[in-house]
Amino acid sequence: LISTYDQFTFQADLQGRQLYEVEKLLKSLGEVTDEEAVSLISDDEEDFLKYLYYISAKYIKRLDEPKYKDLLEIIYLEDKELKTKLFNQYLKDEEKLKQFMRVFPICATTCISAHKLGEPKQYFDMVIIDEASQCNTAISLVPIIRGENLMLVGDPQQLNPVVLLSERDNAILKKKYSAANEYDYISNSIYKTFLACDAVSDEILLSYHYRCHKKIIEFNNKKYYNGKLNIKSSINNEKPLVFIDVEDNNTDIKNTSPTEANKIVKFVEENRDKKIGIITPFVNQKKHIEALLQEKGINDVTCGTVHAFQGDEKDVILFSLAVTDKTTSRTYEWLKNNKELINVATSRAKEQLIVFSSGKNLDRLHKNNSDDDLYDLTEYVKTNGEYMVAEKSVSSRALGVKPYTTETEEAFLQSLKLALDNVLYNKRKCTVHKEVSISHVFKDNISGSDLFYSGRFDFVVYEKEYGKREIPILAIELDGKEHMEDDAVRKRDEKKNAICKKHGFELIRIENSYARRYNYIKDILINYFEGSY
Predict the structure, then answer these.
(1) β-bridge pairing 302-304 and 208-209
(2) Within 206-257, where are the H helices?
(3) Which one of 64, 120, 449, 523 has the fewest CB atoms closer than 10 angstroms to its CB?
(4) Hey, how many other C-beta atoms are within 10 angstroms of the C-beta on 296?
(5) At how many degrees (to 10) do helices 339-346 and 214-224 cross?
(6) Which helix (H) or strand (E) holds 87?
(7) Beta strand pairing status for 208-209 and 430-437?
(8) How crowded is residue 27: how many other Cβ atoms within 10 Å of its Cβ?
(9) Number of H helices, E strands in the chain
(10) Which whole number is the average pLDDT over 120-140?
């Protein structure tokens, strides 16, 4: 094919006739929606299971080959401890692992146990990490380096990894190795780190939601998902949301509400036919509820902090806030906008979410006009979903959402290219690249900034010198309102400005409201190039 492609007649036919015919056919077909594509997929489960059965049989049949004799001997050992030891040794051998994958091309493992699969080399076409938002960077690298491609599945709006490294040691290591905030070991999961640093890969929102009653998940949808969830659940319940006001909430034990605990245990006793989960933000409250359940001989109801419920679901979730007369403003500050905790706790409930708390203490601790997810939740539950939830628009790159739309970006890119052509009249050959790493523009980190290795410019203009590589000459940033209103984004911008100033490199900022204005962009370029002649 390569040798054929070198022939002029083939190129002329491919580009002059075949390509034209293909484009003509595509235009006649028009756009195909996801719904139309999905409708073509067969729903015949029996056919699919038959396919899996026979393709699996084809692979398993390979065990009859003489080279798998040693593997079969391990499989049929009766001593489980010896079997495990020899099997791990078998998988550690690189050639044996490759043989093993001819029979079992899909391997399931934990991140840490992936170190038993051969050497730290690429063996798999793809590594898929589930619940990646709960995986820290260190353990995630063990499976990641064993695959050519990577798929991270998770939710950055849910729980972060539980990391035992102290804040002090983390800060020392960050400073020692000049690690950027995007690589902060405590603050980020491997999922959040990739979202912050990888501007090339696709990000797909699994938007269809089937688990929860519509009124339960609608709070999370408005508060944490920009209203993007497509709620498809068909659960019917007259009272999906219940708030139980616990007035007598005075206690001497920190972060504990005995009255809430008693009401919760009574509810469990009266609803033994339901699958119930009990969630509380505080370990002391969890221990107190567990003790009461044990006294009543109830051992089949899970009670825990929210980490025990990630990935789980129950018919009914009893959410014990344990906000009492003793709860301090500092404790409430930690709790009120703990979005991962609130998001996971509420979305575990399929049929009913029941919130236990003290209304008077919530009112005492809540500050009017302040950002307070917990107060919004309790008001939403009290009004059975009628309360107007204060929506949060996610505009952070760390959460994978750009501060401007793809349409705006593409419109700006086209205007920029056209303006360059018209301003330069082919006097200088310039090209534009988008989402360019800062470290690719400059050779050395003379600014000493932590953003040097993780940051990106929205657009970089390159000039191609005759017979030489492309030289970056100008960076352009599209700024939305978050660049004025968000402190974290502003600080990031200041670091970018400082890096460019240190390197004597021009950085131009354009409000994204001007991104589609061709004449405005053209005037900016004229001023820049006239000043540089």
Answers:
(1) unpaired
(2) 214-224
(3) 64
(4) 12
(5) 160
(6) helix 80-92
(7) unpaired
(8) 8
(9) 23, 13
(10) 95
**Cβ 252 vs Cβ 284: under 8 Å:** no
Is the C-alpha dihedral spanning 308, 312, 318, 319 positive or negative?
Answer: positive
**Nearest CA-CA partner of 416 in 281, 525, 327:** 525
C-alpha to C-alpha distance for 230 and 356, rounded to whole angstroms: 29
Closest alpha carbon to 507 in 469, 463, 533, 473: 473
Residue 270 in this model has a pLDDT that exceeds 50 = yes
pLDDT digits (tens, 9 = 90+) for 441-457: 898 888 888 788 778 88
Q: How far is residue 390's CA from residue 368's CA, in Å, rounded to a whole number? A: 13
CA 183 to chain centre: 15
Judge whether 295 and 269 are in contact, CB under 8 Å: no
Kindly report whether the global pTM for this prediction surpasses the value 0.70.
no
Listed residue (430, 393, 437, 412) closest to 515, CA to CA: 412
Element at 478 (helix H, strand E): strand 470-479
Residue 321 in tokens = 């806030």
What is the CB-side half-sphere exposure of residue 318 using CA atoms within 13 A?
27
Q: How confident is the model at residue 533 (pLDDT cuts 50, 70, 90)?
A: very low
Residue with tokens 């979305």: 347
Structure tokens at 356: 């236990």
Residue-wise DSSP of 173-213 = HHHHTT--GGG-TTT--HHHHHHHH--SS------EE-SS-
Q: Is 427 helix (H, G, I), strand (E, B) or coil?
A: coil
Q: Tokens 């009653």: give the residue.
A: 213
With 0-12 CB in 10 A as exposed, 13-18 as middle and 19+ as buried, what is 473? middle
Best-predicted range by mean pLDDT (7-21, 143-157, 195-209, 238-252): 143-157
pLDDT tens per residue, range 55-91: 999 999 999 999 999 999 999 999 999 999 999 999 9
CA distance 187 to 189: 7
What's the rounded Cα separation, in Å, for the pair 348 and 314? 6
C-alpha closest to that of 257 among 307, 318, 327, 304: 327
First to last CA, the chain: 47
Burial class (CB in 10 A: 0-12, 13-18, 19+), 378: buried
Nearest Cα to Cα of residue 100 among 129, 145, 147, 60: 60
Give CA–CA dist 402/410, Å, rounded.
Answer: 13
CB 526 within 8 A of CB 423: yes
Alpha-carbon distance of 279 to 309, in angstroms, equals: 8
With beta carbons less than 8 A apart as the criterion, state whether 134 and 154 touch.
Answer: yes
pLDDT band at 37 (very low <50, low <70, confident <90, very high): confident
pLDDT of residue 260: 95
Cα angle 44, 47, 50 (rounded to 5 degrees) comes to: 150
